[in-house]
Amino acid sequence: MHNIRPLPQYLVGRFHGWRATSYSENSAWYRRLATDGQRPRAMVISCCDSRVHVTSIFGADSGEFFIHRNIANLVPPYAPDGLQHGTSAAVEYAVQALKVAHLIVVGHTSCGGVAGCHAMCSGHAPELEEKTSFVGRWMDVLRPGYDRVKDLPEGQQIAALEREAVLVSIENLMTFPFVKEAVESGQMSLHGLVHDISEGTLVQASDGGRAWVEV
Q1: Global model pTM greater than 0.85
Q2: Does the pLDDT at position 2 exceed 90?
Q3: Is the model's pLDDT at 209 over the cut of 90?
Q4: How many of the other CB atoms lie within 10 Å of CB of 180?
Q5: What are phi and psi of 103, to 5 degrees?
Q6: Which residues lie across from 205 on neighbouring strands?
């Protein structure tokens, strides 16, 4: 474990600033969260992209959202094969243990993962085709979405694929028996959003994903 180093000082300074202000002013709430456990109303699946900050977008406080982030906000199909599945584990915990009322998939514009998927599927990123590419194998989840946009004008394909990343994830969520049961019984609802980083807007999928409307 000799590779572990002390935290950079700029982060240490930010932590002490947070503890002296936000934590100090709300310490009773944080202690309640620690004692009583979390009861988030929603799970949010979003991209790892540092420009996507869902707690800021929705003005969320600690304890409100159960958040899972991965490359291109993807959910793979249900695959109970005994292997390790981080995203599927997060979904299982949110739905079965936390019993969230809403499961929200948030995509975004200028997504590097989606652009990489487009390049890979169109034959322009052979390095992502390698079995050793973790990113490439993860972006295989989005191949069905690429098949649905590949015949669009070239200038429209990536933007359409960013929306497909949300729709494919929602389709795959419905392959999880416990998600399907929660949705069909009315205990939980699914939502698909795309955040425009430049414009600061949100659009949401409606009419089964055939239309997108501004929030």
Answers
A1: yes
A2: no
A3: no
A4: 13
A5: -125, 115
A6: 212
Give the whole-angstrom CA distance, residue 67 versus residue 60.
11
CA-based end-to-end distance of the chain = 47
CA–CA gap between residue 201 and residue 108 (Å, rounded): 10
One-letter amino acid at 27 equals S
The token pair at 187 is 């205990």
Residue 36: which residues within 8 A CB-CB, separation 6 or more?
A: none
Nearest to 164 by CA among 210, 97, 124, 199: 210
3-class SS of residue 215 = coil
Q: Which amino acid is at 10?
A: Y
Distance CA 117, CA 137 (A): 10
Per-residue pLDDT tens over the stretch 150-208: 999 999 999 999 999 999 999 999 999 999 999 999 999 999 999 999 999 999 999 88
